[in-house]
Amino acid sequence: MRFRNLGKSGLKISTIIMGTFQAGKEKWVGIDDSRTTGAIRAAFDAGITTFDSAEAYGKGHSERILGAALADVRNQVVLATKVSPNRLEYDQVLNACHSSLKNLQTDYIDLYQIHWPSGSFGGKVVPLEETMAAMIKLKKKGKIRAIGVSNFSRTQLEEAAKFGRIDSLQPPFSLFWRHVEENTMAYCIDNNISILAYAPMAQGLLTGKFGPDHEFQKGDHRSKNKLFQPENYQRVQQALARLRPIADQMGVNIGLLALAWVTSHHGVCAIAGARNAEQATMNARAADVSLSASKLTQIDQIGCSVTDYLDNNPVMWFA
Predict the structure, then answer these.
(1) Is residue 20 included in any domain, yes or no?
(2) What gap in Å lies between CA 73 and CA 57, rounded to an integer?
(3) Is the pLDDT confidence value at 211 over 80?
(4) How far apart are CA 221 and CA 39, in angstroms?
(5) Segment (H or E) for 281
(6) Residues ≥6 apart with Cβ < 8 Å to 88
(7) What pLDDT is stored for residue 223 in this prediction?
(8) Hey, how many other C-beta atoms are within 10 angstroms of the C-beta on 318?
(9) Best CA proximity match to 243, nearest among 195, 188, 298
(10) How far apart are CA 65 and CA 24, in angstroms?
(11) What are phi and psi for residue 233, nearest 5 degrees?
């Protein structure tokens, strides 16, 4: 496993981070708690030290599963979680953090993040200064060690930085979803802000397991992912057909190739979810995949055959 600095926090995080959106069960189908726990432990055994969750994932269920799974190795891991966009008033942030601490069975959170900007999904607009004041209070009290934001634009990120140190940005970023490259990535590099890329395998698309005629089971939120819509899905399948020989030549699968491409970017780590121990162990292998400059260029061009046709909305899903 390779490691990177988390902003200027002094924390070291693994380049492959285990995401636990699936562990919350809500919006997913066929998730089993015991297999999720096994996946978390397998990730840790494979060298992954950083785990990402959110209070919104199954109304705290993901945090509770994660906390229980890693309770005996708490001092060896970095735990990251998020406060929801409907809980961004000063006292709400403090209360949300307290709940997450309890769920995670810990007395401190390594990285506490604002999950979505205030006002998202039609919620109440809370001044960012108020939310950041609560985050800074938590940091001063030792309840959290670093502050991050998720799904923020460059403008929103710059505003947050006026009120306190931001050590990470968590945007959607994959070979097939690259809005963060437009101007936000350069700002993060210039200001030592780590990028924690979520959906680095495009919610499973870049594993190559979804064929041309795939249909999701009822209740699976990925059915609303824009990349799975007919106007994009055909281009995705064509791109996967071009990626497969490259992966085969390197002796890896497309998923590992996709994770390695994401983490080849300066200061970027990849948040990869897993349903079971086998997937978690496989994801960790991406840290050992090295891509040459020529391979990176080739893969980049294939990705553009999908992203060049997407609109400018950075949100991956239809409402």
Answers:
(1) yes
(2) 22
(3) no
(4) 21
(5) helix 277-284
(6) 114, 118, 126, 130, 131
(7) 74
(8) 10
(9) 298
(10) 8
(11) -65, -35
Distance from C-alpha of 255 to C-alpha of 260, rounded to nearest angstrom: 9
The vertex-272 CA angle with 268 and 274, nearest 5°, equals: 170
Residue 319 has pLDDT above 70, yes or no: no
Residue 3 makes CB contacts below 8 A (sequence gap 6+) with 12, 13, 14, 15, 49
Given a cut of 80, whether residue 218 has pLDDT beyond it is no
**Partners of 149 in the beta sheet?**
114, 169
Full residue range of the structural domain in which residue 64 is found: 3-207+255-289
**Which residues are known catalytic residues?**
57
H-helix or E-strand spanning residue 211: none
Instruction: Note whether residue 135 is domain-resident.
Output: yes
CB 313 within 8 A of CB 284: no
pTM (two decimals): 0.95
Cα–Cα distance for residue pair 37/49, rounded to 1 Å: 15
Cα 100 from Cα 165, distance rounded (Å): 21
Residue 242 belongs to some domain of the structure: no
In total, how many domains does the chain have? 1
- Amino acid present at 33: D
Q: What is the pLDDT of residues 76-119, one digit of tens each?
A: 999 999 999 999 999 999 999 999 999 999 999 999 999 999 99
**Quick check: 50 and 41 in contact, CB under 8 A?**
no
Residue 297 belongs to a domain: no
